Sequence to fold (337 residues):
Amino acid sequence: MPVTWILGIETSCDETSAAVVGDGSIIASNVISSQIPVHRQYGGVVPEVASRQHLERITVVVEKALQDAGIGFGDLDGIAVTVGPGLIGALLVGVAAAKAYSYYLQKPLLPVHHLEAHLYSNFLAHQDLKPPFICLVVSGGHTSLILLKKHLEYEVLGATRDDAAGEAFDKIARVLGLPYPGGPALEELASKGDPEAINFPRAWLGEDSLEFSFSGLKTAVLNYLKGREKEGISPNLPDVAAGFQAAVVEVLVEKTIKAAKQTGISDLCLAGGVAANSTLRRLFQKRAGEEGFSFYYPEKILCTDNAAMVACAGYYHYLAGHFAPLNQEACANYPLS
Fold:
């Protein structure tokens, strides 16, 4: 049978990405143009700058994706694009480009939710993975426990009440004087510290709660640093980073284990930018093994924002006939439903 080729486009934040994926599993290309060097001088993503960067790069990135895949526009069967959530100006660039390609090529436009795309990155990494499973999607903008009942059918079991885990990583990294992006820099600093030297609080939010909260932990770290400053004591920054990271990781893992026990689902997945954190992966692997659960996660290049995961999710929308009209809008706050 002929391969179904989907072009994926991702511009929800500060990566301009395009990919060509066949049958939801064959990554023929996955081009990612990062804006990190541009935003580093500001200490974080500037939405207006990100939008302009996407405008400059989108057509070049799409053409490179097709070139790397060795196929032409006429070989495509559908155009998948992240329609939300994300930075509205950034999303508009990707959605406008996808609609233009869809109209010109007369190919279906496939709308993809950003969290959905992250979840589907696991299908690219594990060909044998099948629903149902629970996925912890954890990134700079999201921390959500999602039950995939069957393809394209989701139930959000829990989410953050305030900061996302990745956002907390970035904020504490900034306080510690680390460069942007803060998450990887904090992980590197934490590798030199003792995670048990400072016992920062864990927010469990009740015995059966599957929700998350990291604002209190962030405040605890800030208060610890201010307290040391008042006492004229220089804090051990690697220990601070390690203690903070341990507090975040423990809650993420134990909440996911709790969700598995509550639902009776034994397959657990991890996705999103924070899924690249090695400490998180190791603890997940350990706890899943202890509880008799299977644990899956994508390679690091598929954890950060990329278009291959968008194309993968788009393939299943293609099979289901979920085609968007050409007046499809981008949505900064887009519920997963």
